[in-house]
Amino acid sequence: MTKALTFLGIESSCDDTAAAIVRRGPDGRAEILANVVAGQAELHAAFGGVVPEIAARAHAEKLDICVEEALTASGLDLSDLDGIAVTAGPGLIGGVLSGVMCAKGIAAGAGLPLVGVNHLAGHALTPRLTDGVAFPYLMLLVSGGHCQFLIASGPESYTRLGGTIDDAPGEAFDKVARLIGLPQPGGPHVEAEAKSGNDRTFSLPRPLLDRPGCDMSFSGLKTAVLRARDGVVAEKGGLTRQDRADLCASFQAAVCDVLTEKSRRALETYLAEAPATPTFAVAGGVSANAAIRSALEALCESQGVRFLAPPLKLCTDNAAMIAWAGIERFASGAADDMALAARPRWPLDNRSPALLGSGKKGAKA
Ligand code: KG4
Ligand code: ZN
Predict the structure, then answer these.
(1) Domain membership of residue 173 as a residue range
(2) Residue 220 sits in the same domain as residue 145
(3) Is 174 in the pocket of ligand 1 (CB under 6 A)?
(4) How many angstroms is it from 40 CA to the middle of ligand 1?
(5) Radius of gyration (C-alpha) of the chain in whole angstroms
């Protein structure tokens, strides 16, 4: 039995302003008492990507409103809390700063402990928030801003096995959608089109499969789609509905093949540690893709590994994961003070070399 802990979590590292209240009971189980997310998609829509200055201003405007909403929804007030957790990086620095300043103000005003959280640790600890998964487990973060394999061995102990060296897969889905005139965010539209397409019509590369290890690359794949599209346009003067579907299916199959093969390699390394209850969890918007999900699920089944995909609203950016990661850090004796700094880059695994990519949604490592 441990002491119950209730934390406010604050997230503002990209284009979602979020506040949540999470309680860890004496039995170690998590309860999400409130989970408020205010997205900014419409503010950035006209620019084709997140504009850091617009994001930072919107966070500064919305943070206290989200915090108030979360407190009201939970039925608690500040005096019921045991601490404040805030994303202190990595991400777009203006947004991260807005969140850190807001958290410092509340912590100082209410006399509460302040815990800075690595945004990636928030994603990586989500399987413990949702399912109480035991360490060590293997994690694939796969979204518009992240793509990496991590072995999580403790709240502050991660080994990165590899990641993208350029675009994240979600970014590639979005760019492919743009190339063939589908709306943003592109992932769900590409997936829907792919259902009526033939994935063998276009022969697209499977980047980096010829190299050992778990690093990935998606930017060449997107360029290959561009060339394939141009080829069809040059030949026929435009794209038919079927061409679009075939492009989507061929692209999705290539992403799926890369993620599956790299996951197989990551599992090999992870299973060599002989974990007691082997588990592979995915997080991030791209894990919503049914084709990718079922390919990874089948892979896990063949290896006798439990496959876990937390509910989507806890896989994408949110503050419940930040509150939970704060609770885990705090319970292990860690805390910060008013010197807590906002960090644009903050690798979870300091022993691995920095990833090269720095996609549309900010730094990846
Ligand atoms: O995790 P997320 O909401 O935000 C961050 O990137 O941090 O992920 C959004 C990304 C977008 O690029 C979106 O196109 C992609 O996830 N996505 C998908 C699907 N649903 C969302 N990609 C492929 N298939 C989907 N069904
Ligand atoms: Zn994220």
Answers:
(1) 137-313
(2) yes
(3) yes
(4) 15
(5) 21
